[in-house]
């Protein structure tokens, strides 16, 4: 099979103020609040946002029904704090005046009976489905470069916006990088697309480029921007009306932004607002953890892992490894090793990665993967502490 000598690949990211990301943030903040109250809490929370309104719905559960009723009273405050922290104080979308509707209710008993452990069975998966994990050695974070740097640009712009260093930037923004590869190595940027909400209608695209360009150059590797790089900054012109006032938002609509920017398959399930009994989330984290450790162990330059589950069944139905012809170890041997080094039941994943903790609100923007593991257990799936065990199992 012929290998291409060069190609261009594109990925996008969206900021924490994007309408869909605001909804992801609210859903994950509610999840964190429930897990703070009870590590075994059940949450499947969806959020919808539009002009002057946020609607929260879905299924939640605590072991004490009376506590659950009491807890519902705090949802309004969680929603408003998320909006305030992101920075929305627009006339038609303001944290103090937005109308919040809470439609959360107790988890279905029919779902619970398949998920809950009992005397004669282990806890089952929260749903059927397929989940993918991916890693590549093209960046230090073992992530695809176009996505990793698209995230980094928006994270940096959010920092200078919130610090007051760039007072005319506003929360809603999108970035997109088309990265040129020589062989499998990213070497430069063919084009940059950056659209960011701003304060004044008098600000032109050139004005916005003058603000954002220094931060983009700061974030990207040296030499990646050349005189041939095409810039498209606020290409439609004015972008003053933004956020949910400009476009409705919904939890779970940015699943490619959340994962690998299109460089790897996706099983279709969103993450935000779901407690870790939901394998859409926890098994995707486990698959990333395994793929990252396989690449970190030098077994392959790239690795994709697929896991599959059935509702109510504890163990995965299948484990598939693809090293994209870059492997130093047979994929079948890696598949067998995975089963030896990690329990991939929902309970096993949660215990191995410490997922029953309030660590999810921070994942809602700038990617669930490629982040630094944190002292309190956040981004535990980004650790590379399984390398020795994998090598020992081969």
What does this protein look like?
The model has no long low-confidence stretch (mean pLDDT 94). A hairpin with a 2-residue loop joins strand 2 and strand 3. The longest helix has 19 residues. It is flat, with a radius of gyration of 22 Å. Helix 1 crosses helix 3. With 394 residues, it is of the alpha+beta class. The two termini are 28 Å apart.
Following the backbone from N to C, one meets helices and strands in this order, namely EHEEHHEEEHEHEEHEEHHEEHHH
In the predicted model, the low-confidence regions spanning at least 5 consecutive residues are: none
Helix content: 25-40%
Strand content: 15-25%
The best one-word shape is flat
Distance linking N and C termini: 28 Å
Q: Indicate the radius of gyration in whole angstroms.
A: 22 Å
What is the number of strand segments? Answer: 13
What oligomeric arrangement do these chains adopt? single chain
Number of helices: 11
Biggest sheet statistics = 4 strands, mixed
Mean pLDDT, as a whole number?
Answer: 94
- The strand line-up of the biggest sheet is 1-8-9-10
Sheet/helix structural class: alpha+beta
């Amino acid at each position: 099979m012929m290998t291409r000598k060069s190609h261009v690949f594109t990925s996008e990211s969206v900021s924490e103020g994007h309408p869909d990301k605001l909804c992801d943030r609210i859903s994950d903040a509610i999840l964190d609040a429930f897990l703070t109250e009870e590590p075994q809490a059940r949450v499947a929370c969806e959020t919808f946002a539009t002009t002057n309104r946020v609607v929260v719905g879905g299924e939640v559960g605590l072991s004490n029904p009376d506590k659950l009723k009491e807890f519902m009273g705090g949802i309004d405050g969680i929603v408003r704090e998320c909006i305030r922290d992101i920075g929305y104080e627009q006339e038609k979308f303001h944290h103090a005046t937005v109308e919040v509707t809470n439609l959360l209710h107790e988890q279905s008993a029919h779902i619970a009976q398949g998920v809950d452990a009992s005397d004669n069975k282990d806890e089952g998966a929260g749903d059927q489905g397929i989940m993918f994990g991916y890693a590549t050695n093209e960046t230090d974070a073992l992530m695809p470069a176009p996505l990793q740097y698209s995230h980094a640009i928006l994270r940096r712009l959010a920092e200078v916006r919130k610090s007051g260093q760039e007072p005319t930037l506003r929360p809603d923004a999108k970035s997109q990088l088309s990265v040129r590869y020589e062989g499998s190595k990213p070497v430069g940027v063919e084009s940059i697309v950056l659209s960011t909400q701003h304060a004044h209608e008098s600000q032109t695209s050139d004005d916005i480029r003058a603000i954002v360009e220094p931060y983009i150059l700061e974030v990207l590797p040296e030499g990646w921007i050349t005189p041939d790089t095409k810039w498209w900054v606020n290409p439609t012109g004015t972008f003053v009306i933004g956020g949910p006032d400009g476009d409705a938002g919904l939890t779970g609509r940015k699943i490619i932004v959340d994962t690998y920017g299109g460089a790897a398959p996706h099983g279709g399930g969103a993450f935000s607002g779901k407690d870790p009994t939901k394998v859409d989330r926890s098994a995707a984290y486990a698959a990333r953890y395994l793929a990252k450790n396989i690449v970190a162990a030098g077994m392959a330059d790239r690795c994709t892992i697929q896991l599959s589950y059935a509702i109510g069944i504890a163990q995965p139905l299948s484990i598939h490894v693809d090293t994209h012809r870059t492997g130093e170890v047979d994929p079948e041997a890696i598949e067998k090793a995975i089963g030896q080094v990690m329990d991939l039941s929902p309970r096993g994943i949660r215990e191995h990665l410490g997922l029953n903790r309030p660590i999810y609100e921070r994942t809602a923007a700038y990617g669930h993967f490629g982040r630094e593991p944190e002292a309190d257990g956040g981004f535990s799936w980004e650790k590379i502490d399984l390398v020795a065990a994998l090598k020992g199992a081969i």
